[in-house]
Design a protein that fits this description.
85 residues, mainly alpha, 0% strand
């Protein structure tokens, strides 16, 4: 059975959509989810299975949320503040 779209491309499309939503709404949670999707894209490019991709998404999103919480005390929560990390 041929796949219509490769999994890494699907993760990249989802991440791009989430980044666009984040830019339009300034919800930092969508940025965290997009970061998790990019980790899953790397897992897919390495040829790992769906389970590893989903695990990468969960771990990447969790780490990004932790980074958001540590930066929250500084008062500047935006995508631009994470670029300087």
């Amino acid at each position: 059975m041929d796949t219509i779209i490769s999994s890494w491309l699907l993760w990249l499309i989802i991440a791009a959509i989430l980044i666009i939503i984040e830019l339009l709404t300034s919800m930092i949670a969508t940025f965290c989810l997009a970061a998790g999707c990019l980790i899953a894209m790397v897992c897919a490019l390495l040829g790992w299975g769906v389970e590893a991709q989903l695990t990468g998404t969960i771990i990447g999103t969790g780490i990004t949320f932790i980074l958001v919480q540590t930066r929250r005390g500084e008062g500047n929560i935006s995508v631009q503040s994470f670029i300087s990390l």
